[in-house]
Amino acid sequence: MHRRDFIRLVGGGVVVAATTATASCAPVGVDPRAAWDNPGATETDIRRKALSFAILAPNPHNMQPWMADLRTPGEVTFHADRTRLLPVTDPFNRQIVIGFGGVLAYLQMALRQLGQSAEQVTFPEGEAHPLLDDRPIARVRLVGERKSPPDPLFPRLLDRRTDRGAYADRAIDTAAFADLLTSPHVQGSLDPALVERLKGLVYEGARIEAHTPAAHQESVERTFIGARDVAAHPWGISLDQPMMTAMNAVGILTKAKMATPGTTAFNESLKFLKTAADTSRGFVWITTPGNSRHDQIVAGESYARLSLMVAAHGLAIHPWSQGLQEYATQKPVFDALHRELAPDGGRIQMLARIGYPKSTLRPAPRRGLAAQIRSA
Questions:
Q1: 76 three-state secondary structure
Q2: Which domain does 243 fall in, by range?
Q3: pLDDT given at position 29
Q4: What is the distance between the terminal CA atoms of the chain, rounded to a whole angstrom?
Q5: Which residues have a Cβ under 8 Å from the Cβ of 3 and sit 6 or more positions away?
Q6: d(Cα 83, Cα 24) in Å, to the nearest integer?
Q7: Domain holding 176: CATH number?
Q8: Number of other CB atoms surrounding residue 207 within 10 Å
Q9: Within 13 Å and on the Cβ side, how many CA atoms surround 285?
Q10: Full-model pTM
Q11: Is the C or the N end of the chain the one with fewer CB within 10 Å?
């Protein structure tokens, strides 16, 4: 941190004062993480109860672009909220569709937990290319009592986190790692040489994004800083830890500065990412034979299960997707990752770093079920 900014932050007890002042200005009674507290407890419609769990699934930039239509009894039809896409960093909506795979996986788990079986059809009116349109992403129909036991991973659903921070200096248990690779389409490595190469590639993808103005601005616009801003925007990338709130209150950490190369906010963001990359203890990735919308849904379902397995083993996971994105400046990293991890072909849909967490994290904010239901 630049010396002048450090002095502004800590001089005269500004950290405490700024954090307290900002917290006191947060919207009264608004908890951006309320959706994680006893999901579905007040719901009587089993579809809404299951959806209360489904909306907690991981998704790109935490955009939560899901709309669930419940107007047909016994069915849930998913559509994309096209106001919540990532047109620069996800130009073909591939990552958004992967996010829908996660929602569908969680919904099926929740329905099984509630004693229901359901049939699922993806893109029942055809796949939308090159961009999503108003056609449904999936239709899920309840078909009676479940014929299989509850999913053993369901109890981990509320434990899942995306941990973007530095990981502990501790080798990953090899038996736990082997268990992760039993999830469909998942591969991975703890090989030190490969891990070092991947550390460099994922950070290079992040560096390229930071220096591609339109791509970087898209992420900055979807970042909310401080307790008040996050409470007002329970989606996107949330930076509401006390230190972040204090830095925002004194003008060190703002969206404008995050977007401007050379500022403390910009430089520290890259430094944070470099440290995260360097503390990776292993990597896992999800590869599909092709890149159809169905392949993307399958990748999202696989990642959803993988993230729960990670939580079950006390590990941390952080999807690092910049180098897999399709905008032009990422092509060198995109090609290098595919040469390294998919030399025989296929599309790498997800790449994530793993390790052991250094601290306990709060879950990411959620908009809540009411904001994502389309019904009369």
A1: strand
A2: 1-25+216-256
A3: 59
A4: 52
A5: none
A6: 31
A7: 3.40.109.10
A8: 16
A9: 23
A10: 0.93
A11: C
pLDDT at position 14 is: 43
* Distance, CA of 369 to CA of 366 (rounded, Å): 9
- Indicate if 68 and 2 belong to the same structural domain: no
Which of the residues in the chain have pLDDT under 50? 3-24
Does 336 map to a domain? yes
pLDDT of residue 92: 98
Counted domains in the chain? 3
CA-based nearest residue to 164, from 362, 368, 366 = 362
Per-residue pLDDT at 10: 42
What pLDDT does 2 receive? Answer: 53
Cα(327)–Cα(212) distance, rounded to whole angstroms?
10
Query: pLDDT digit string (tens) for 34-43?
Result: 999 999 999 9
Whether 145 and 195 share a structural domain: no
CB 320 within 8 A of CB 255: no
Residue 259 vs residues 193, 214, 215: alpha-carbon distances, Å: 34, 10, 10
H/E stretch holding 119 reads strand 116-122
